[in-house]
């Protein structure tokens, strides 16, 4: 396994990564992107085990509700890059299982690749969302055929792909791009049915980074986003060659295109649900005015409904024949949906309670300035025992978390991650036990078990 | 234990019970109230065990999450009178436990009474809500001092009480009125701190019944409320003598007045939450038009959040030193609250989907009439395979359940049972782990463990 | 013009109308249906003008925002049958205007018929909603071809129609059935494109009545629905001959099928919006506990938003070249939508505030009974100045209006009248000024007037 | 009247204003604060009239619904500083009117000051919100007596004040601080009952600025906040002397303390409501994917309800005996409340529809970079006719407006401006016609005009 420093060195592999219009040649040394590298490096050091062939503890496959709960709790504490690496590995193994009967060679290739990736101790990011062009048209019917990533050439030793993947968290900080179709493909859309692993440094890969990281001179006013941030990558494949042993779908078998994204969905939403459990509590905790009880009750009730969903998702997990525990699809999706749908209201409550100082609390530098510092301290305080520095910091935290660039990032990401509200509604619908509900209704109506047409 | 018929006979004890302005002398034979008596009698037959000293299986105290779940499931299938009897017994035992250290005699009296009640196999109803007079004034400060039930005389062998209790489900069908204070009392309100067991047939007790039962000639159009209904009793204590061995608080110890109602709260709300799990599913099941997906998704998601809350309430039960499993206060209250608060929207979705025939589907008699029956059958049908009788019945069920007298009863009862939305919000707030939430928030704000005032 | 008594007599025209399985031969004398007849007769007496050729004041066509407001206010005070007669006349004249250019003969026939109807002073009801069979199939593709009303025979002097129309308020109390297509028809669905006026007493017409009217012996407990109620008619056309001068679309010109329903929509929703203005205020007024401020604020705010929408609909009316003032489509639909969508929450607030006595207040007969009357009066009172009779009546009103059969009728009707939430959303979308909104957005984004593709 | 350049020069008056820890000596030349100065200067040039004694057109007092509408529309186009100056003048004149009978000298002083301010053509900002200390205690009962602005010394020629006012928009860019009590004061809180006009450059005034202005090197990615922004001032009065002719309440007459804030409320909320009319449309306009109809319908319906409220507020204005038209308190507050309460949901809909590129669209510099520009253009495009530059700009606008620092500023300000949701609910409740609603309810209940206690 790599140490943090070995990880830092591994990023110098010729990758073409851009930020604010400039190519970045020294990622670990970059004033903004380097902070994300540091977080990832700390993750390497945390899980480092010098034993040959060791595999990180964050990789363990849970086998029961108890182990699933432990794994969920562990992943609440790891950096984002470590977490997506785990979700990627779980996705690949799940997909291998699902295609094995029909595509045994591809399943074997996936498993071999996973084993090798664990040996190399690399970090993996998830390239799913295509550029998409005109959303009302199918992939094969776009003005620009590259609007979805596709195979443009087949060679004896591999394939060449072209296209772009959007919103790829930490793409520039990982080693491998797990590149999979964004949705199911239909017959005739074979070229778009492509799943493969692409090294970040491969020729033709370009990544443009964007980030909510504050650009302010004094990042102390951003107690959250000033300390941790992860850029999103806009990943472009400009005619990239991928060798055969890294190709799992090669522009064929469109009937399997959706298997990878579906495998990913559950793990991604479980992560999202677990993050809501913490995030909702955090919003409650940021509130400070005890007497505005109705809004706080609403916040607590929503936080507890989210937590109940996670409890039910874990306790009602299903264990596969391999002994792997999967959280309940229904409870995971319903909890994630409720969390995403109500986040805006939770934040509104917090803004309503906390007041205008969210926006207008003077900064840490104003506290440092001797002409103004004592006055800020005086007038931002409440009781003698609660001074203005403490309250100023709390307001900075609320602004940073909910009403500035990071807050905007959460607002959108909470909705869009794991496929958007719409996708979570669909999956909830699929897994709800409708037959049971119908039976209850007919019994209550004293219509017994009667089939449709009978009186 | 009694049989159903023995139960019927036991109601002829001189009780003064009224309906629509008339005193009822033959409850089992009454065309409307007799139906509730039948349901209760069936409950007696179901649990009858001829062994001497036998106690009904519905009385078992659960000792683990598993047994708690079984008990919840069992009580989903019993009649209302059986269920409230169980909740009353649990309430009394819980209260005995809580007052034991300070009022050992009273605790012993409760336990003795419970043992005897189980031996006599009687049914108990719950008299809590007082008339209240002007809600903005305390009990002792009303124009009419009887607005809250109170002790008007103390004798060597017991007490005399006066007042009224409202909304007492099935009061006329039980044997014992568990009469407890509606809320906490303050020093000086001693006379209102009264808890005792009053036989329904005791001199001075009068009960006025109201019911959502349909008065229509043809109750087939009311597939639910035409088959089962329970009257609410308006119970009046016109100077009723209660012997000492039935008195648990005798117009003294106002500091214990709230113990009984609080003990009842958890069990009542658990019952409410469990009923929502079924009731929400039932609403989903009553919906029939598969393509209106957004509303149905909403309904399913809400139904599943309710179910997740029940799951979490059971799995996170606490087991007392006596080995009794109590469901989680937090999850029980939050789930009950969410169910109550969203019921109106669930019904609105159902009405929106199902359309005007909820109101205007012709009745069963119109189907019988040979001039009109074949036409109703023709025009209420959809496919050849779904005839108009089936659909008419389904519309009757929806109307009965959600848009007629029974529907109104559910609308109000779901909100008010277990103390109203307000009470459930308070309890949720009390049990939410606010310290944990604050800790999460401060950590996220990089403000560590710092106490309030420190920088 | 007819008097009330002449109207009563006019109903004895051989009409085949059914109730609870029996044909009714004496409508004015029927214990339940006769009450609606009385309301309609009172409407005749109110507007009676003995002058030859007089036309009812409720028929006036408004020509300005001011007159439109007066007409809206007038119709808030008339009985339902009078109101739908007016809306029908306005619908027919609007439709005549819209088809005139292409179908001048039909337009002339409509105008002639309207003139004659005004002379005869008849009442008109609106037959729109077809039986529909399987909602996912077009009219011409049903198992039963009669699922939508259609022309089954053309004769030289008229047409023969077959089918059924559902949810026709007061159908049995009017003289004429304005029978129009429920939606647009496509080429090949000509036979379903039929609009005509059918006398209620025409051979082959059968009407089955349903009603929320209380069947209780003592209707004093139903202060609203015990005094006024209107049955819904299930209207069946069993091969009914309609003479040519009453036929406006004769199973042809499917491109005009939707004109009538669209013409009706605006007037129906304006009526609905105006009723909400009153109905929302009424809900606020029924609430009695002044200190539950948050819920009451919500109720008042919603009531005022509804009123603001009516204000804006009237003030922004458009006046046609004929000088007729039409309310704004946008504000009418948005207000009606908001009222319908939030009604369930308004009622929930009322139920939450008012408490369980909505359901369990003893009846008027219990107040009459000398054993119980004084006790009900005592324990349902609050202050000495607010006695129990007053409060009992108020609770009866709340139950009747929101939590019993009439309440269910409002719950469903508010949603479904005027085409359901879905239809109101569509019309709102059509009339919203999207181009203006886009322009505002692009200006704010400093993207000026730039067309789509330009940088 | 001043020109823009004269305004710029007027700011060099020795004012002590701070930003990010440093005192600013050249406001017009400051890279961030100077932009706000430019906006204000443009406002001066726009309304400049060289005639001696001219008064800006933006100052006109409307006298009818028509003129009120024109004034509302005019103020939608002016810069913030001009708008608050107008609202301040209206507030002062309204307050003068209300105190005249009791405090004629003070009323005269206000009117004289206003006349002089108009002659000097100065800009005024609104200092209301005090530091407040512990919100659960009264002003006179704080650990620090300066938590609310107060009079610390009375002199023969004026008063000396101490304290701080928070969230003062554009305080550093105006000439005069309209300093008024934040709420009503009680007897004994006389020293806190202080209203006066303080020049920004007066000795002892210090202002700390905060702003959502982007600090990024390339502000093209912030099409809104990169072009216009206004800092919020944290205004401190460190023992500031105010001459008598500028003092309207001098630490006495606490019964009039609230008059000023109440006078301000209506004008501030009208401005807020008018801004919502535009802002909601803008959110609708920013949405680009036509087929997600349900969410867009919701957005349009809310935007139209807001617009209906403004329509009703204007049409139902009241004209005072002086001929000044005031918008309806009820409709203004209800509309502002609905806009504020639903803003979070509107933004959520937009985020749900628009997708992750809100956050991750590459920046303008990435479009400039020749290695990446053509690729961004290609993959951010949809149709050939909608290229990637256009779409990138649109995503920047959405992020800037709703999901970055400016978006956070709107989220909080929409809730808190004009006193917060709570204040708007209170005012709505005060102005709703409850007697009318009760009358409607009693009539519907057939309880006639009966007084409370009568049967």
Notes on the protein architecture:
Four copies of one chain form a homotetramer. Chain A has 455 residues and is an alpha+beta fold. Chain A folds into two domains: 4-259, Butyryl-CoA Dehydrogenase, subunit A, domain 2 (Beta Barrel), CATH 2.40.110.10; 269-439, Butyryl-CoA Dehydrogenase, subunit A, domain 3, CATH 1.20.140.10. Chain A has helices at residues 4-10, 33-47, 65-75, 80-99, 104-120, 257-286, 293-315, 329-354, 357-360, 364-368, 373-379, 388-402, 405-416, 420-431, 434-444, and strands at residues 16-19, 22-24, 124-127, 150-155, 158-169, 176-179, 194-199, 205-210, 232-243, 247-250, 318-319, 325-326. In chain A, strands 2-1-8-9-5-4 form a six-stranded mixed sheet, with no helix packed on it. In chain A, a hairpin with a 2-residue loop joins strand 4 (150-155) and strand 5 (158-169). The longest helix of chain A is centred in the middle third of the chain and has 30 residues, at 257-286.
Largest interface: A-D, 84 and 84 residues
The average pLDDT value of chain A, as a whole number, equals: 87
From N to C, what is the helix and strand string of chain A?
A: HEEHHHHEEEEEEEEHHEEHHHHHHHH
Q: Rg of chain A from C-alpha positions?
A: 24 Å
């Amino acid at each position: 396994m790599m140490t943090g420093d070995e990880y830092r060195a591994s990023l110098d592999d010729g990758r073409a990564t851009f930020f604010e219009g400039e190519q970045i040649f020294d990622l670990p040394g970059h004033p903004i992107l380097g902070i994300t590298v540091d977080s990832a490096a700390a993750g390497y050091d945390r899980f480092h085990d010098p034993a040959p062939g060791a595999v990180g503890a964050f990789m363990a496959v849970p086998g029961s509700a108890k182990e699933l709960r432990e794994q969920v709790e562990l992943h609440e504490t790891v950096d984002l890059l470590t977490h997506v690496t785990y979700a990627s590995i779980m996705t690949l193994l799940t997909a291998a299982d699902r295609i094995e009967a029909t595509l045994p060679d591809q399943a074997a290739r996936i498993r071999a690749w996973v084993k090798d990736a664990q040996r190399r101790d690399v970090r993996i990011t998830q390239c799913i969302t295509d550029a998409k062009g005109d959303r009302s048209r199918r992939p094969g019917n776009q003005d620009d055929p590259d609007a979805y990533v596709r195979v443009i050439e087949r060679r004896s030793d591999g394939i060449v792909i072209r296209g772009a993947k959007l919103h790829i968290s930490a793409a520039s900080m990982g080693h491998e791009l797990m590149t999979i179709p964004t949705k199911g493909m239909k017959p005739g859309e074979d070229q778009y049915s492509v799943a493969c692993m692409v090294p970040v440094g491969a020729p033709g890969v370009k990544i443009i980074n964007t980030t909510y990281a504050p650009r302010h001179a004094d990042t102390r006013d951003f107690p959250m986003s000033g300390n941790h941030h992860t850029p999103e990558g806009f990943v472009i494949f400009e005619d990239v060659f991928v060798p055969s042993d890294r190709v799992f779908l090669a522009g064929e078998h469109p009937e399997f295109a959706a298997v990878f994204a579906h495998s990913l969905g559950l793990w991604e939403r479980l992560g999202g649900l677990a993050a809501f459990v913490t995030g909702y509590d955090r919003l409650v905790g940021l509130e400070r005015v005890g007497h505005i009880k109705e809004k706080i009750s609403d916040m607590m009730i929503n936080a507890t409904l989210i937590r109940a969903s996670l409890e039910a998702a874990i306790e009602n997990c299903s264990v596969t024949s391999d002994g792997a525990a999967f959280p309940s699809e229904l409870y995971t999706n319903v909890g994630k949906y409720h969390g995403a749908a109500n986040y805006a209201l939770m934040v509104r409550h917090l803004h309503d309670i906390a007041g205008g100082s969210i926006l207008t609390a003077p900064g840490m530098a104003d506290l440092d300035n001797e002409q103004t510092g004592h006055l800020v301290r005086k007038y931002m305080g409440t009781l003698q025992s609660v001074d203005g520095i403490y309250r100023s910091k709390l307001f900075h935290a609320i602004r940073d978390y909910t009403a500035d660039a990071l807050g905007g990032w959460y607002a959108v990401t909470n909705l869009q991650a794991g496929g958007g509200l719409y996708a979570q509604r669909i999956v909830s619908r699929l897994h709800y036990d409708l037959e049971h509900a119908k039976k209850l209704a007919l019994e209550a109506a004293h219509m017994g078990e009667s089939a449709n047409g009978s009186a």
